[in-house]
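Exercise 7b. Backbone tokens:
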């Protein structure tokens, strides 16, 4: 039996999957790495941690398999994170991650120097703190000695692939999230680089996600046990790979992926639609295809934060037990998942989460269900935008942590008012990376053919009409919370900053 490996480089851990030619995930291994948070809003990681944990994970993954049977490897990775390398391709500083929100000032600089309309015409996206370009400008402004040494920038999974092959590349799906790619032309925007005084040479060579980019190095082979003949394929952004891993490869397909962040994603056959920046518009990991996407920054993170803060000693099964007994609306308790700001539809780095409607009758299970409902309401705001644009959304494939609990899957069906499908494997991005490797190895004639072989639907959840109506009423109230807490969040942010300055003296 022949195999491929899919590597999913996430925010909290790297997950590696060993997938057979029949499409079966025969083994998977996950290895964590730390998050570095020096200040409020700062989120960084050491790129060397990604490499070391990927090596450890692959070594454990293949210990019982013949390395000669493993034909290829590809990657899915957290988007937007900035890795700067010097002329010798050495890391210059910790990577600044997608959920880092220090760059509000740089986003304003982009609008002032480029203009909103020009930026949208080139990149199809607005300037947000999470994107790579504002991070480059932040380093240029506040760490000029580091910026002056920078030879090239990479995104997280591209650095890991570089460590494996010694080759520098970036695929279109990940490049689309930098805010420097001309989305339609599929090339770096020289115009943007000139307007922002960034050398275009800082941008790496571009490739397709399924492109063969080399074989693994002798050193990496020795450390992992893989054969030096293992083929390496470029891979893609986690959301693009998640789309492949869920079969979102034709028009009309919609994905809900709930990991650390949450994503609602819909396939687009071309770059012609204009959402005016309300949702993201990126290149797909499928060649010459695109996808629109809405993002909740703290989706699964909101739930894990709540568990770690208030039920640290429980596992997730214990933590979620009994939420099906709590009625729709959690007894009038609502939660907004704005723990690290928000992306869609509110591009706001200062907004913060809240519970509203708390009374003495609420138990822990009411709060847990309210967090889940709040996350799902936030994702539903993106679905609303899709529907308002004329897209039909009646079937949604759910993957990630939000697909592991049946009650949550039913809540999704009821809030989205759509059929929700659960797949045999929730590891969409990792499976998508494996599909790219399988296609690259020539196992199938197309990504679609490969996805049909690898992806299996195991359960369907239909919306309950009575719950749909209840959630429609609650959703109207939920949407009012942002407007009524926005100014309060700004005031509290100023107060928190003053306190930090006071106690840092």
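Sequence design result:
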């Amino acid at each position: 039996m022949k195999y491929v490996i899919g590597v999913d480089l996430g925010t909290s851990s790297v997950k590696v999957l060993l997938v057979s030619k029949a499409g079966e995930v025969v083994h998977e291994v996950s290895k964590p790495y730390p998050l570095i948070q020096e200040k409020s809003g700062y989120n960084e990681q050491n790129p060397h941690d990604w490499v070391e944990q990927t090596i450890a994970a692959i070594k454990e993954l293949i210990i019982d398999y013949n390395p000669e049977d493993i034909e290829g490897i590809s990657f899915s990775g957290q988007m937007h994170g900035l890795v700067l390398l010097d002329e010798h391709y050495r890391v210059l500083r910790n990577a600044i991650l997608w959920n880092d929100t220090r760059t509000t000032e740089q986003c304003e600089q982009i609008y002032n120097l480029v203009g909103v309309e020009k930026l949208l015409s080139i990149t199809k996206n607005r300037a947000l703190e999470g994107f790579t370009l504002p991070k480059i400008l932040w380093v240029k402004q506040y760490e000029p000695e580091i910026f002056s040494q920078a030879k090239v920038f990479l995104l997280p999974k591209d650095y890991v692939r570089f460590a494996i092959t010694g080759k520098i590349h970036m695929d279109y799906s990940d490049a689309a999230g930098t805010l420097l790619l001309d989305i339609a032309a599929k090339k770096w925007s020289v115009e943007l680089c000139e307007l922002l005084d960034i050398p275009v040479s800082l941008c790496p060579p571009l490739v397709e996600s399924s492109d063969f980019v080399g074989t693994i190095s002798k050193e990496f082979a020795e450390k992992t046990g893989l054969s030096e003949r293992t083929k390496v394929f470029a891979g893609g952004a986690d959301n693009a790979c998640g789309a492949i891993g869920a079969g979102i490869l034709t028009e009309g397909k919609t994905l809900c992926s709930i990991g650390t962040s949450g994503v609602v994603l819909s396939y687009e056959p071309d770059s012609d639609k204009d959402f005016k920046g309300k949702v993201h518009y990126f290149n797909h990991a499928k060649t010459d295809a695109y996808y629109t996407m809405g993002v909740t920054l703290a989706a699964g993170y909101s739930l894990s934060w709540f568990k770690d803060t208030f039920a640290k000693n429980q596992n997730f099964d214990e933590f979620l037990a009994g939420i099906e007994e709590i009625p729709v609306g959690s007894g009038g308790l609502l939660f907004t998942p704005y723990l690290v700001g928000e992306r869609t539809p509110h591009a706001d780095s200062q907004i913060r989460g809240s519970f509203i409607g708390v009374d003495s009758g609420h138990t822990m299970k009411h709060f847990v269900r309210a967090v889940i409902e709040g996350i799902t309401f936030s994702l539903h705001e993106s679905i609303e935008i899709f529907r308002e644009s004329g897209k039909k959304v009646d079937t949604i494939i759910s993957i990630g942590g939000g697909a592991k609990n049946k009650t949550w899957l039913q809540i999704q069906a009821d809030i989205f008012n759509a059929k929700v499908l659960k797949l045999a494997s929730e590891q969409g991005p990792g499976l998508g990376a494996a599909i790219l490797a399988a296609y690259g190895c020539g196992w199938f004639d197309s990504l679609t053919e490969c996805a049909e072989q690898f992806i299996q639907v195991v359960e369907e959840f239909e919306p309950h009409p009575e719950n749909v109506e209840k959630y429609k009423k609650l959703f109207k109230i939920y949407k009012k919370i942002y407007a009524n807490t926005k100014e309060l969040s700004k005031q509290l942010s100023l107060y928190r900053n003053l306190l930090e300055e006071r106690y840092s003296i």
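Instructor comment: The chain has a mean pLDDT of 94. DSSP finds 17 helices and 24 strands in the chain.
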